[in-house]
Amino acid sequence: MDQDGYFDADTAARYDADHGGADPSDAVRVLAEFAAKGKALEFAIGTGRVALPLSAMGVAVQGIELSEAMVAQMQVKPGAERIPVTIGDMTTTRLEISFDLVFLVFNTINNLTTQEAQVACFQNAARHLAPGGHFFIEVQVPPIQRLPEGETLLAFARDDTHFGTDEIDVVSQRFSSHHVWTEGGKTRTLSVPMRYVWPSELDLMARLAGLEPVHRWADWRKTPFGPTSRAHVSAWRKP
Fold first, then answer.
1. Using CA of residue 189, residue 193, residue 196, residue 202, what is the dihedral sign?
2. Best exposed site among 96, 127, 151, 211 by fewest CB in 10 Å?
3. How many whole angstroms separate alpha carbon 59 and alpha carbon 61?
């Protein structure tokens, strides 16, 4: 791995094909609603899967991203010239501007592998929000109910070319997301360390950052969140 960490040039070049297949239109519609054609900041903007269509809807989008390789992939796409991106850590990088919306999607809060870093992410989001602004997170619900007692491995993907498992430590809340791709007789692997976080834990982090909870849905279509939901979209507001 190079200086971009787990999302180096090779991973970034394949990222959209490997991970970016989901249609972002529902997310973009909700985020545009809350940005109200104001200013939005995406933490971990990546290859621009969400930021580019959001910008096309008239929202002034900026980004913070740790991986230069991921940003390089975004910058060759149409419309990327409208989106300034600062290379840096979403827990500490500070832009001297206020935003109506800050958002962090696609389980990326889990890429922060300590509780302290996740708390710092909320604090940094709050620092960037104007009064009345919203912080959105999209993340899976920890899949502990689907983990047999005593087991540590849980498969999350299986098809002709991709097999994925999470290796979970229920004591530390740390897990590693393992991927194996087979294409043309060749095999590629990727393992990324993560930390899962409970919805109630996120609410406490928000409270510590001075934010108040306003929404929690099972998905970007605003499906009601319930005990069997496997993911959630949550929003907190800066008073």
1. negative
2. 96
3. 6
Helices and strands (H, E) in the chain, number of each type = 6, 11
Q: Which long-range contacts (CB under 8 A, 24 or more apart) does 173-177 make?
A: 173/115, 173/142, 173/197, 174/113
pTM here is 0.93
β-strand pairing of 153-158 with 129-140: unpaired
Q: What six digits make up the tokens of 129?
A: 């929000």
| 2: pLDDT strictly greater than 60 | no
Q: Rg of the chain's alpha carbons, rounded to an integer?
A: 17
| Tens digit of each residue's pLDDT (9 = 90 or more) over 181-230 | 998 888 989 899 999 999 999 999 999 999 999 999 999 999 999 999 99
Of 70, 56, 59, the closest CA to residue 102 belongs to 59
